[in-house]
Structure formats: structure tokens, C-alpha cells
From TrEMBL:
Signal peptide coordinates: none
Keyword tags: Aminoacyl-tRNA synthetase, ATP-binding, Ligase, Nucleotide-binding, Protein biosynthesis
Enzyme superclass (EC): ligase
Domain of life assignment: Bacteria
Keyword Cell membrane: no
Protein name, UniProt field: Tryptophan--tRNA ligase
Pfam family, one: tRNA-synt_1b
Enzyme Commission no: 6.1.1.2
GO molecular function ontology, one term from the record: tryptophan-tRNA ligase activity
CDD domains according to UniProt: TrpRS_core
The keyword Iron appears for this protein: no
Any one of the GO BP annotations: tryptophanyl-tRNA aminoacylation
GO cellular component: cytosol
Amino acid sequence: MARILTGIQATGVPHLGNILGAIEPAINLANDPKNESLLFIANLHTLTSIKEPEVIRENTYAVAAAWLALGLNTERTIFYRQSDIPEVTEMTWYLNCFTPFPMLANAHSFKDKSDRLSDVNAGLFDYPVLMACDILMYDADIVPVGKDQKQHLEMTRDIAGSINHNLGKETLKQPEASFDENVMIVPGIDGEKMSKSYGNTINLFQTDKKLRKNVMKIVTDTTPLEKPKNPDTCNVFKIYKLVASDEEVATMRKNYEAGGYGYGHAKQELYEKLRDRYSEPRERFQHLMDNKHEIDQELEKGAKRAREIGRPVLSRLRKELGY
Ligand code: TYM
């Protein structure tokens, strides 16, 4: 039995990139009875960029509600909040002491964020070590993430390798990353990677009217309606491909290539696809956000189970380190 683990930050209501890149693949893996899985909300990581307590709390609920609404089975999956596991911050300290400074200083995401953000704090710098700890504390075998997290996964393996080498024994398990090749990076409405920090997301969990408006903002070129269009360079088509069936995608491709089919038509089809494909999760999400005690119950149950797995790993490491 493989132990699968993944996390998502509490930076806001999960967007389509999070859903297709992480949440759905993770739920599919978790629902496979051959696996044991842990899924968590990385709300300690969130403090690197968000400082308002109410926003952190609300975002944590929104992420939890999205996972639950999209079909996470909490009997089978251990579902918890990172902040309910205080052991993770203790263990991060130990990992820090085995993490070379240049490895963190050269991390792509740190370089990118430190160029863009005004609040460049030590937590932001140390982000990958807390993430490594999230994984290593539970002896995870497989970590399904989007391609943007590849370097963080490599760092996790390096940190575990460095500790094992220093201690002269296999104290921490080195996990494998797992990427869904079909999804890779979900493009946002401007064609860049969909990301809250780029302001280019599609948010499924809003009213039909707002969702439609959101989809209509997808950036396209100026090829006139009657002319044939290249679907492979079009942002609308790229997103449609990720949510529609093969047959539907083939039809849209034909329409693009034939001409007389405008970007407005394609956007309307994409909007309808999203609306219909996610109609149940969207309703369930609203229900949970209006009944947050139901979310709390699930998360508290998960934290208890997660600590039962994490504590022995931390004890093992403490002992090996001489504490
Ligand atoms: P976060 O919250 O930025 O992203 C959560 C997951 O969504 C994926 N993702 C995407 N995939 C495809 N296309 C996109 N446009 C897109 N945007 C986001 C990310 O790859 C990720 O899998 N550092 C993590 C959170 C974390 C974590 C962990 C993950 C903390 N500890 C331990 C795994 C294991 C992050 O930034 O997630």
C-alpha cells in the first residue's frame, strides 16, 4: 500500500488550476483502495504572504470546503489543517539545520517571489523546508503536485538524503513526485500559469453570472469571426481541452479550423462546460461555507489521525539526533 500525500495553500478559494492540477488528481488517487492518503491545507505556509487572521481563517475554510465539495472521502483520506499539527514546526527546525543556505537562496519560487513582493520575510525563504517537513513527517511514498512544485520536491528528497547521510541510516523516507502529464500547468485567462498571484484565475465557486464573466475575459487574438483559427495557440481551447471529452474537443477543433466560429462562441461553450461539469460541487461548496462547523468536525478528526502517524516519525528523528 502506497502512502500518498499532498497539500494546497490557503491563499483563497481554489481556482481551476488548483482543481485540475492538484485536487482532482489527488482525490482520484485517494479513492483508489490500494492507497492510503493524507491531504492537508497548508495554512502555515499562507502566513508567508497573508497576515490578516480573518483572511487566513476564511481561506482555510474555503479550501477545505472545495476538497469536500469535489468529492473527498474523509473516511478513506486523512484530511487536516497543517496548523493543527504543531509537531511540524518543531521538525522543520531539525530539517533547517541540514538544509544548505544556497539551495534555498537559489530556489525558483523564492527568487520569483522576492522580486515581486514587498514583504520578503524569513518564512518565505524557509518555505521549502516546511514543505519538506509536511512530506517527510508522514513517511509519504508519493506526492502528487503540479509541475511548478517539482523543485520543492527535489529539495525534499535532498534534505531527507542529507539527514540520512549524516545519521548514517535511512531515518527519513525519500518520496516520489507524481505529475499528471495531461494537466501539467493549467493556463490562466492570459495564457500564463494560472495563479492567484498573477490575478489570472478562473474561480468555479462563484455565481453563474460571475463565472461567465470570468470566462469571457480569457485573452484571445484578433482573428475575425469568419476566418479559420488555430486552436492550439488559443487560451480558450487550451482550457477547454482539460475539462471536455475527447469528442467535444475534436468538435471544437473542427469549428476553429473551419472559420465562422468566433472566440465568443468558444468561450460560451467553455462556460457551459464548467457550469455543468461542476454543478454539484458548486452547490455543496456553498452549503459547507454556510455550515462551517461541518468543516471543523472533519478537519479535527483528520488532525488526530495525522498526528498518530507523524508523532512516531518525529520521535524517531529526535532520538537519532540526540534529543
Ligand atoms: P499551491 O497552493 O500553490 O498549489 C496547490 C497545488 O496546485 C497545483 N497548481 C497548479 N497545477 C497546475 N496548473 C496550475 N496553474 C496550478 N496552480 C497550482 C500546485 O502544483 C500544487 O500541487 N507548496 C504547495 C503547498 C504545499 C504542499 C506541501 C504540497 C505545502 N506543503 C507538501 C505538497 C506537499 C503550494 O504552493 O501549493
